[in-house]
Amino acid sequence: MNDELLQVLRRPPRERADAARNRSRVLEAAGRLFAEGGVAALTVDAVAREAGVGKGTVFRRFGDKSGLVSALLDQRERELQEAVVFGAPPLGPGAPPRERARAFFDAYLTYLADHLDLVRLSETASPGARFRIGAYVFWHRHLALLCADRPDPDHLAHVLLGMVAADLNTELLAQDMGWDRIRAGVASAVDRLVDPSYSP
Amino acid sequence: MNDELLQVLRRPPRERADAARNRSRVLEAAGRLFAEGGVAALTVDAVAREAGVGKGTVFRRFGDKSGLVSALLDQRERELQEAVVFGAPPLGPGAPPRERARAFFDAYLTYLADHLDLVRLSETASPGARFRIGAYVFWHRHLALLCADRPDPDHLAHVLLGMVAADLNTELLAQDMGWDRIRAGVASAVDRLVDPSYSP
DNA sequence: TAGACAAACGGACTTGGGTCCGTTTACTCT
DNA sequence: AGAGTAAACGGACCCAAGTCCGTTTGTCTA
Fold first, then answer.
1. Which CATH number belongs to the domain containing residue A154 in this structure?
2. Same domain, yes or no: B71 and B120
3. Contact (Cβ atoms closer than 8 angstroms) between residue A45 and residue A55
4. Which pLDDT tens digit goes with each residue over B75-108?
C-alpha cells in the first residue's frame, strides 16, 4: 500500500472552489431572506434565486430544506456546544450532573427563545428531521452521559430533549404559556428525572 | 326570543345526506388503500379517486390530511378514551393518580404500537398538527387532572405526552430500542414526574 | 498548458397538499 | 309540488419540496 493510496484514504477530497462559493452564497441569501421576511420567505426556490444559483445546487449542498436551515443555525448552536464541552461549570464540566443538566436546559431555552421559528423549521421540515440533525445527536449524548447512573440513559435523554422540541414550545407559547413558566416546568422535570435522589 | 330561534341556537344543523354518504365513502376508501399499500398509498388524491369524489370534498369533510387520518383512527382511540373515563381502575377512575397514569401510558403504548404509522402520519402531516387533534387535548386534560397537585399540571401533561409522540417512538424503534424498553423508560419517568413522593 | 474526469451546475419536471370558485344538490318553507 | 337557499360538490389551479439528467467547470496529471 503506497503513500498516495494512504493519502486518498485519509483526506476526503476537499470541496471544490465553486461549491464552497455557492455554499456561502446560499447561506447569505437565506440569511437575508429570513431577516426580511421571516420563515415564510424561506422557500428553497426563493433562496436559490436570491443566491443566483440553481435549485439543484441548494439541495446538493444541504441535502434538504432542514439541512439548509440547520446550517443557518449552526454558528449559534456551535457556541453553545463549545460552552458545554470546554466552558466553565455548571454548563461545562465540573458541576454535578443535575446542575449541568439544569444549566444546559436553561441555556438551550434561551437559544430556543431567540430562534424558535428557525429551529422549528429545521425540526419539522420533514418527519423525523429533528433526530437527524447533528446537534440533536450531540445533545443526546451529552444528556445520556449526565444520566449515566439511571436505568436507561439513552431513552431518558430522548425524553428530556422532548421537552425542548420547537414544535411543542411553539404550541405552549400559543397557549399563552410564557418562557418563564416553560423554564420552571422544564427545570422541575429535569430535577426529578436526572437525579435519582432528588425530592424537594 | 322565540322558540324557533332557541332551537336554531341549540341544534347545529345536521349533516346533509350527501355529505354523510361521502364521509363514509372517503373513510372506507382510505381504509382500503391503507390496508393495501400502507401509509405510502394514503395520498389525498388517491383517496378521493378511490372514493369516487372530488378532492375538494375530502378537504371540506376532514379539514386536512391530518384530520382524515385522525378520523381513521378515531374508533380505536375512542375505545381507549371510554376505558379511561368509565372503565375499571387502574385505567378508569378509582386508582391513585400515579397508577392511573401508568395504566394510561401502558394502554396508549399498546395502541401506538398497533397503529404507529397512522398515528405518525396524523401527527406530522403538518407542523403542530399533533396538538390540534381532539384526542391530544383529551389526553392532556386527563393527565393534567392526574397531576393536579404538582406545581404546573398543564406543562407537565404536555411533557408527559411528549414521551409518546409517534415521531419520537418511530426514531427509537429505528435505533433498535424495542417496545419493552420504551415501556420501561416511560413507566419510570411517569413514576418520577407524576408522584411527588415517589423515589424507589 | 492540454486533456480527462469527477464533481458541480441548473432548471425543467414530478409529486402531493391545499385552495378556489362556478355548478349542483339536499333540505326547508309555503 | 315548487321555489329559494345554504351547503356540498369537484376538478382545475397554485405552491413548494425534492428529483433528474444533460451540460459546464474546477482540479489533477502528464
1. 1.10.357
2. yes
3. yes
4. 899 999 999 999 999 999 999 999 999 999 999 9
